[in-house]
Amino acid sequence: MSEVRIEKVQGTRKGLEGVEILGLGLVALSLGLLIFNPGSIAGLFNAMVDRAFPIIVKVFLTGTVGVALICSVMMGRILERCGFTDALMRIFVPLTRLIGINPAVIIPSVYNILGDINAAGRIAGPILVKAGATKDEQKIAIATMVQSQQSFSTFMFGLIALTAVGVQAYVVVILAVFAPLVIVPFILRHTLWRDTKAVALDELPRFTPTKAALPTLFGAAREGAELLFLLIIPAVGVTYALIGALDYVGIWQPIETGLSSLLQALAIDPTSGMVSILASPTLAMAQLKDVAATLDPRFVVGSFVLGASGFPLSVLFGQIPAIWSESTDLNEKEALGAAILGATMRIVTAGAIALFVTPLLL
């Protein structure tokens, strides 16, 4: 008969830690609410569900965004299979050697412009790793990627709005969409993230897969579905549930008011600007084109530049950290920091172009 040996384990706890104090406070708060205001807990939960439900169900599950995301991954993989990435490398290598960065840094932005910001991370993230990009270069890639619009419909709606106010649209497009592909990496490479290295074309591997056409197509569709259901919907749910909780306790309304005042000061239409930041740049541009003729041209240009970006907040705080931590060497915190920096630069760019460049284009 086997013997049972019991060892006495010496305890290592020596007093309360900060997280334990927080936990005890939450226990006391929960008990107090159950006794004196039991409806508040249910109200908080309902506020979180009510804020997240329309986005998850109506936008991603039963709306066109979820299907568009799957199609964008398919489109990106088809382009990759047809040699698109290798062609981009040949185009950007001479330019990025002058800046002193890996040419793969530009790839996510191009895939973002052509397809979708989520597909860009899923496809271009592994390309950065394969190209030997440093962590600093991967952060620069994220900050640069959020400078460009994440759907072609956003660009077209915005172009209609620019035409309605009579500005020279091509100048705005060059400054707002294409110039950041070079300017943002140049600035960040010489300021915050200096661990970069220019790479010659013959030092880079080939990025075109050798998989056959049909497996590429069906594999891309499955990859898009996995991206939608396993990463994006959970990330969106977390983001909007937190916004609902903040709104319920009265914190979100002052934040929203402050954002609206900031947009007004930067010559960005507060209505379309808030839609871009909180909901969808495509929806914001669709609304802007209908009222552009009644607005100050500066506000239309500022709103277009802001809409041609990596917003809304659910993308910055949820989807980018989730996707890029899976496909690159960055963790969630590093990816989130780069996304927030890029979004901040985009807001400043929108204000600068609206206030200082627009008067020259009329």
From TrEMBL:
Q: Which UniProt keywords apply?
A: Membrane, Transmembrane, Transmembrane helix
- Can you tell me where the transmembrane regions are? 21-49, 55-79, 91-111, 155-188, 227-251, 271-288, 300-324, 336-361
UniProt keyword annotation of Zinc-finger present: no
Signal sequence span per UniProt? none
Q: Which domain of life is it from?
A: Bacteria
Write down what this protein is called: Uncharacterized protein
